Amino acid sequence: MVNPVEVELRAITKRYGEVVAADHVNLKVKPGKLFTLLGPSGCGKTTILRMIGGFIRPDEGQILIGGEDIADKPPNERDCGFVFQSYALFPHMTVRNNIGYGLKLRKWAKNDIERKVHEVASLLRITELRDRYPRQLSGGQQQRVALARALAIEPRVFLWDEPLSNLDAKLRDVLRFELRELQVETKITTIYVTHDQAEALILADELVVMNMGRIEQIGRAFDVYGKPLTPFVADFIGRSNFFDGKILNIDQNKDTTQVSCGDQILNAPISPEFRPGDEVMAVVRPEKVSLFFSEPGKDFDNSFRGKLESLSFLGDHIECRAHLQGDIHIAASLPSGQLSTLRVGQEVFVAWRKSDTSLLSKR
Amino acid sequence: MKWTTFLLLVPFLGLSGLLIILPFAAVVVKSLTTINDISFLLIKSPLQLLSTQFSPQNFVRIFSDSYYRRTLYNTLIVATFATVLCVGIGIFPAYFYAKMTKHQGKIGIITTLPLLAPDLLSCFALWMFLGADGPVNTIFYNTLHIFVQPIDVIGTWQMLVLADFYVLGAYFIQSLGNILKSSDPSIEEASLSLGATPFQTFRKILLPMNASAIVILSLFVFTRTMAEFVTALILGGGKTPVLPLLVYLQLTTYGRGGDLCVASAISVVLVLLTLSTQTAYGYIVKVITRGRG
């Protein structure tokens, strides 16, 4: 297997007329790690992937693989294993010849090609399909062949462009874990583009959240989810409750920031970038919100009386909304076991810990 | 399907029967007789048909007479070379037309020009351009003395090949270009990402992937060229007869030596040649696409 390499983007910019697809993007993908580029359609994630692959030329900036600037190299000299959303298998070739295509171009000996094809086919569990044509394969099988073909050439970098998006949900769930196992086993530096946040959270060593050509946040999935740095990240990753407010008071002794949100006062941890009077957005995840029928204990720094206005049973959990004083609405995700105790219109106390509150700048 | 739906097919079937099947059946019947008149034997003289002696003598004449054999040979040679030229040369502009999106408009105009004028006009223009007193000879022979002798291509089979390529090549390029344009670009990108150069991608991926389309388009060029007589009429100079031209001559000299039965037999031979070619091509396409769908 190859030695893992770092992939670095320095101030990468790409414009299409007035539209900026990538806006001075800086990114370092650590050797042997899997980074996912996550964002809505049109955010620039595929543009960036294709620039690394050499199919689009950046207007500005540098792309380095293993410390080497590859900007002037055509796609066939970049040694990247690109896996396409549409699989892009060669329809006139068998699976065997699809997988061996890159090796034949590299003038490997016939025996070595056959050995390598067998090796990667075994790894992807498609050995019995080697004499079939793409048209004779299911979606999941085609995807495995596409992966095997990219893996066979022992690339320095894997570039995966939404490889699972054309598959049904169940198959996606299975293949996600297989992809992760493959990447961990081969240790090939991988950049994975997806718009599916569940996929990104499951697969990524680090998550790169993008919006409108810019990186909003980079970090481990746990950190990005738990501590979103911008309203976009808070909204795009998972679900969030947003409260517009103003910093009232910062108490260093109690490590508490008090935020005035309409008629309510929220408690949040201290954030060094905020001062009293700053306009902020307070964010709390629905699964961090608990419901009580009486005033909760001191464990919960935020506690508000309200009324349940909707209940939805979703199998493994319940989604509910409560209406608080000051015309504030809050969503909560609760274990489904609580369903029998709840009724729409019920008076409840909505509570969460201050450590589960994030403060984001509104600027 | 309801029987009322089949009513929608009646106009088409009626027209097909009236304008294609029945007339052709009449031509087949005539080709097997020596009744050299313009009677529509199947309808006007059905009773006469019963007493007519059918014989293959028109076909025997076509295949035994050296003039007719040479004409058959010319027809096949011109069709074959025109097809080879269209495919061999036309593939590359088709590729550029499909891939060079920036210049697609300009390439499209250049490749469409021959299609804008009727075949007659194109042939007439070529006849003037390459004729004995045309600009090519005037400039390169008379004025610059680059040619040792004037070029004399009018009337040669090479001229017919060139003219057919000029007319049908544009169609081939546009059709293949549109097919290549609609193919999934990620397949080419996959090839590049695996280490292939653009030319290797063209040779190992694009061409084989679209082989059946290229074969079918070349079949069209071949059969169209076999049936082409305007180029032979204007540019053949009487020195390179082809089968469609013979049919035309037999028809236009009817009453002055023209034989409609022979014309009919030549037409049947042309159709049989076309059908055989289509069958052969169909087999080739089947072999090419075996397994891959």
Question: What is the fold's blueprint, element by element?
Answer:
The complex is a heterodimer of chains A (363) and B (293).
Chain A: E1 7-16, E2 19-29, E3 34-38, H1 45-53, E4 60-65, E5 68-69, E6 80-83, H2 95-105, H3 110-123, H4 139-152, E7 157-161, H5 169-186, E8 189-194, H6 197-203, E9 206-211, E10 214-219, H7 221-226, H8 231-236, E11 241-251, E12 256-261, E13 264-268, E14 279-284, E15 290-292, E16 302-313, E17 317-324, E18 328-335, E19 347-352, E20 357-361
Parallel strand pairs in A: 3-8, 3-9, 6-7, 7-8
Antiparallel strand pairs in A: 1-2, 1-4, 4-5, 9-10, 11-12, 11-14, 12-13, 14-20, 15-19, 16-17, 16-19, 17-18
Chain B: H1 3-7, H2 10-31, H3 46-51, H4 57-64, H5 66-99, H6 104-116, H7 119-130, H8 135-143, H9 157-181, H10 185-193, H11 198-209, H12 211-227, H13 230-235, H14 243-252, H15 260-288
Helix pairs in contact in B: 2-15, 4-5, 4-15, 5-6, 5-9, 5-12, 6-9, 9-12, 10-11, 12-15, 14-15
What are the defining features of this structure?
heterodimer; A: 363 residues; alpha+beta; 6-stranded mixed β-sheet; 5-stranded antiparallel β-sheet; 20 strands; 23% helix; B: 293 residues; mainly alpha; 15 helices; 74% helix; 0% strand; globular
- Decide which structural class fits the backbone of chain A: alpha+beta
> H/E element string of chain A?
EEEHEEEHHHEHEHEEHHEEEEEEEEEE
Oligomerization state of this entry?
A: heterodimer
Strand percentage of chain B, roughly?
under 5%
Instruction: Give the number of helices of chain A.
Output: 8
Q: Describe the global form of chain A.
A: elongated
Number of helices of chain B: 15
Distance between the amino and carboxyl termini of chain B: 28 Å
Q: Provide the gyration radius of chain B in Å.
A: 24 Å
Task: Write down how many β-strands of chain B occur, each being a DSSP E stretch of 2 or more residues.
Answer: 0
Give a verbal description of the structure:
The complex is a heterodimer of chains A (363) and B (293). Chain A has 363 residues and is an alpha+beta fold. Helices cover 23% and strands 36% of the residues of chain A. Chain A is built from 8 helices and 20 strands. Chain A has helices spanning 45-53, 95-105, 110-123, 139-152, 169-186, 197-203, 221-226, 231-236, and strands spanning 7-16, 19-29, 34-38, 60-65, 68-69, 80-83, 157-161, 189-194, 206-211, 214-219, 241-251, 256-261, 264-268, 279-284, 290-292, 302-313, 317-324, 328-335, 347-352, 357-361. With 293 residues, chain B is an all-alpha fold. Chain B has helices spanning 3-7, 10-31, 46-51, 57-64, 66-99, 104-116, 119-130, 135-143, 157-181, 185-193, 198-209, 211-227, 230-235, 243-252, 260-288. The model of chain B has no long low-confidence stretch (mean pLDDT 85). The chains are: A alpha+beta (363), B mainly alpha (293). At the A-B interface, strand 6 and helix 2 of A face helix 10 and helix 11 of B.
